[in-house]
């Protein structure tokens, strides 16, 4: 299933889960090419990933304001401390969120038995 791309081309619709060794990684990509690296913030709040960018430019003759906000619900098993992001030279922000293998088992957890 192909997700629609916005008319402006400013969205890269790509929630993608890839195999990574014995686990899986959620890969997200965002086109933030209209923003400088220092204008971009990536953070997690509860189980949501938030991407925010803001550009303000003022001169005597004009004023420019641009804002980018994306919110993505993280699947079970994505630990915020394991999420990594990188920004390419062409302005594509890639966020990798590893999914813990045990989370893919649907809530089943093996409990070890201690032998005395």
Automatic annotation (TrEMBL):
InterPro entries, alphabetized: A-crystallin/Hsp20_dom (IPR002068), Alpha-crystallin/sHSP_animal (IPR001436), HSP20-like_chaperone (IPR008978)
PROSITE patterns with a match to the protein in the record: SHSP
GO MF assignments: unfolded protein binding
UniProt-listed GO biological process terms: protein refolding; response to heat
Domain SHSP: 7-116
A single cellular component GO annotation: nucleus
PANTHER family: HEAT SHOCK PROTEIN HSP-12.2-RELATED (PTHR45640), RE23625P (PTHR45640:SF26)
Family: Belongs to the small heat shock protein (HSP20) family.
UniProt name for this protein: SHSP domain-containing protein
